[in-house]
């Protein structure tokens, strides 16, 4: 099977497998977006007279057929095709002959992957946005039911001062609100159309980039063709950072729930259906999902580092290193979204044991209050502090 770049020689099979990597697998997630971009590109070619209106319509109809195949799970990318761009163009040529060969006019696989990835990322940001908002709403419902219950607050993993379910849970709702701001900022940066910059230096013909940007729902055109190439990896790293921030919050949530649901504490109770067992100890109910949620922060942090490092030390223009950013970005987004879904389930299902919480409210938690009761009576703070300390440690 010939490749889009095919010359008079064939690539060594070992080299071919190494250079293709897992692109043909990852691109199954991007093929739909490549078709959307191709439809807009065909319309633009018709608009500037490279294609007739009839030709543009035929290409659009055939791309709709391919989109239908993708949605039904019938679209397959072969390893020798390298990516979704080749697979889609091959189908167009197979169906439309020479007309299918015209679709690549005024573009490169470089701006094809950039625009497909950017459309994909915009959709994923929207999904994360919805999940964060759903988590916030779920936490508020949890607070409405349990918020008035008092339980110990800790510093240095030792009892410190009184806390409440409302104070504890609203911490995670507030952090998700900040994560929404980060997602919004990254969305604004990503919302630029790279289509029409080809391999990073434009194309030697007049095209209408504003038209394709508007057709694809971008707020503006990313003007500088070299920066378009530089932004691959840079924009993804920004998005990975927002994923890491969400996972950082979920990591802390998981750590809290692992501790507070221990029988020795018992403030929270995990449903049995959330817990796994031991192959040797019949009594065990293990919080594996919380441990994996906690651990996945570090997986995401490594992905962020990968993306940043892959984009560094490169000279201007396209470099194949950028291909390797797709895997960690797609995987990182999926882990974050799945973790948010788990967090929503947790706040819907976990139970607060009010009796255990009450029994945890032991006398030392009120030491600071006793200090301030003395302060209100006119005793200097340091003197009040020492007086209460001596009563505890005498």
Structural account:
This protein has 15 helices and 6 strands. Strand 3, helix 9 (209-215) and strand 4 (220-221) form a beta-alpha-beta unit. With 394 residues, it is mainly alpha-helical. The chain has a two-stranded antiparallel ribbon with strand order 1-2. The chain folds into 3 domains: 13-101, Orthogonal Bundle (Fumarase C, Chain B, domain 1); 109-359, Fumarase/aspartase (Central domain) (Fumarase C, Chain A, domain 2), CATH 1.20.200.10; 364-393, no CATH class.
Overview features:
394 residues, mainly alpha, Fumarase C, Chain B, domain 1, Fumarase C, Chain A, domain 2, 3 domains, two-stranded antiparallel sheet, two-stranded parallel ribbon, 15 helices, 6 strands, elongated
Chain-wise SSE layout:
Elements: H1 13-20, H2 23-26, H3 31-47, H4 53-72, H5 84-96, H6 98-101, H7 109-146, E1 150-155, E2 158-164, H8 165-190, E3 192-193, H9 209-215, E4 220-221, H10 225-260, E5 268-269, H11 288-310, H12 326-349, E6 351-352, H13 354-359, H14 367-376, H15 381-393
Parallel strand pairs: 3-4
Antiparallel strand pairs: 1-2, 5-6
Helix pairs in contact: 3-4, 3-7, 3-9, 4-5, 7-8, 7-10, 7-12, 8-10, 10-11, 10-12, 11-12, 14-15
Q: Nutshell version of this structure?
A:
Strand 1 and strand 2 (158-164) form a beta hairpin. The model has no long low-confidence stretch (mean pLDDT 94). The protein has 15 helices and six strands.
